[in-house]
Amino acid sequence: MTRPRFDFTISATDGKARTGVIAMQRGDIRTPAFMPVGTAATVKGMKPADVVGAGADIILGNTYHLMLRPGAERVARLGGLHAFSGWSKPILTDSGGYQVMSLADLTKRSEEGVSFKSHLDGTRHLLSPERSIEIQRLLGSNIVMAFDELVPTTSTREVQAAAMERSMRWAKRSRAAFDAGEDHAENNAIFGIQQGALNEGFRKSSADALIDIGFDGYAVGGLAVGEGQEAMFGCLDFAPDQLPVDKPRYLMGVGKPDDIVGAVERGIDMFDCVMPTRSGRTGQAFTRTGPINIRNAKFAEDMGPLDPACPCPVCGTWGRAYLHHLVRSGEMLGAMLMTEHNIWFYETLMADLRAAIASGTLTQFANDFRGVYARKSEGEPK
Question: How much is the pTM?
Fold first, then answer.
């Protein structure tokens, strides 16, 4: 039986929340879905089989970093990102726009694209909608993201409007570049990215433009960039509703566990964030009662698991005291085990959210979760 290129089926709803499946040639993606971030063709500290074992159906690769090292053309010669990294399931690649704006030096924006100096070796590059899509095609991406322009939510109204309008022109060019990809386009998908900061009118104009172009799915971009949870949720109270109900909605770069729960309640289907891996490497573990900092001295003789409710292999095998020792000693196994636990925590949370939506109990689940998850608890930045 031939698998579909891209098919999104919603099996249950609860309020605005939905659960379902995105079917692609490389496998099914259960939604709501969390995508571990594999910036440089690896989910840091984990083998692909262990990422799958944690429950992930899809990971994210980064266009900006991979174009600079090892290079998209090299990855293509080596069989594409799946063969190169040993990951057989779907991969979504971001467009590189965010990293260009946030990491690269001496950027110059124009209608053509963004020219920048590499943060690695100072070489000059131009990233345009066409080049971004070409890189993602060379990588063998299964879900390609349109190239967009991101500006801070604190920017002036005029700057926000101009960036949104340019992003929509770039979205049209991205769609055309994707469609020119022949076999790749016939077997994979492309998402557009809604922009407009926190402005409901700008978001609506962006959504209308994207719908007119036509995409397989739609991302809500430009959030989780310092505006705070209250402002983000305020935007999510209207932004997802402006997008097609029968297409996946992806909130880019989010986020903390309670961010995800609130966003699912508002109709978001897909997420990605470096939080579980980055936090794991610095000694922070996510638990149902909030994050903890395993480096703290009180864990030095604590033989209990990181989270008694967690089904992961780490919690089933090692105690907090051992993990405290590993992390304090700088042993690489410490970062690996902390990361594995965090990925399991996120993927288990997504499974619980899917089950709650399917059973019509999401509000109770979300309220219970928030009742015990302390956002400002130990180990999490204030």
Answer: 0.96
